[in-house]
Amino acid sequence: MQETPEFPRALKLSLDKAQKFYSDPKYLESDPILFPSRYTNSLDREIVSLFSALFAYGNVKAIQQFLAPLFLDLGDHPYLALAEKNRFFETAKKNIKYYRFQTQADNRLFLDIVSDIASETKQSKDNSPLFETYFLNEDGFDPIEGISLFQTIFTKKILSQTGKKQLSPGLKFLIGEPLSKSAKKRICLFLRWMVRDKFPDFGIYKKILPNQIPFPLDVHIQRLIGILGISERKTFGIKESILIRDYFKNFYPDDPLLYDFCLTRVGIIRKCRGIQVEEICSICEIREACRIGSATGN
């Protein structure tokens, strides 16, 4: 990781070019954020974002095939469906399928837990965000502690309902382990959607700042930060997510996650493999800064 604030000009120019290119709603089709973007109510968006982010592992097609029927069953207002436990909720609970590591029973239980949370807030007539406080301690938001706190709260709610001492393997994967040093990419992604208020995100959470969120390090980002010369690391955890965030603070101090969406499009749409493939590299938006796709690199 470079520690000097002097960065290659070609890198920023290429990233700005890619960011502008992918700031088009048509590219939402390639991302799970497509689902919450279809709603206007902030509570609907928050509920749908939680499911969309936590189940955002695997290929895009598989994710969409699992989530699309769920949100269709929940109707036009998923928050009310869950809070009121109405017929839309009952249909969604009946029809929800397994998804990779999560069994059908896991997913039904998770629906129940989120439904209980929504019901509590509706009864209290509190229209503030459902989960923002789950990330906050008495001093506000600390990235590592806050994400761990979110995982701990969900874990306790699930165990309280099941009466068991530990989560099922599927739910442990879905929520993650609070003390794990992993990158916790899906929760970081959820936070990006909730906190940033610029495309493609929603700006629902106001007590957390965009420059506090760890960079969501999915496989595409991990590959790209290597070929762009940002980091030579081969393993990535939550501390590396913070280091990558801090690297990009040198470009945009208040919005270091600005490039996350466009960089993942390079992996998902352009299908960057991290090696030189002429038909891929020749049309890539960041080729001028890439160490393998350009003769000059960055």
Describe this structure in words.
The chain has helices spanning 9-21, 34-37, 42-54, 60-74, 78-84, 87-95, 104-123, 143-162, 169-175, 185-195, 219-227, 238-249, 260-268, 278-281, and strands at 136-137, 140-141. It has 298 residues and is mostly helical. It has one domain (9-281). This is TIGR02757 family protein.
Q: How large is the share of residues in beta strands?
A: under 5%
Strand order of the largest sheet: 1-2
Distance, first to last CA:
15 Å
The largest β sheet comes out as:
2 strands, antiparallel
- The rough form would be described as globular
Tell me the number of structural domains.
1
- Number of discrete helical segments: 14
The residue ranges in which pLDDT falls below 50 over 5 or more consecutive positions are 1-6
| SS-derived structural category | mainly alpha
Rg of Cα set: 20 Å
Sequence of secondary-structure elements: HHHHHHHEEHHHHHHH
Number of strands: 2
Helix content bin: 40-55%
Average pLDDT confidence is 92
Quick take:
By secondary structure, the protein is an all-alpha fold. It has helices at 9-21, 34-37, 42-54, 60-74, 78-84, 87-95, 104-123, 143-162, 169-175, 185-195, 219-227, 238-249, 260-268, 278-281; strands spanning 136-137, 140-141.
Provide tags for this entry.
2 strands, CHP02757, 51% helix, 14 helices, TIGR02757 family protein, mainly alpha, disordered N terminus, 298 residues, two-stranded antiparallel ribbon, globular
Describe the protein's topology.
Blueprint: H1 9-21, H2 34-37, H3 42-54, H4 60-74, H5 78-84, H6 87-95, H7 104-123, E1 136-137, E2 140-141, H8 143-162, H9 169-175, H10 185-195, H11 219-227, H12 238-249, H13 260-268, H14 278-281
Helix pairs in contact: 3-10, 4-6, 5-7
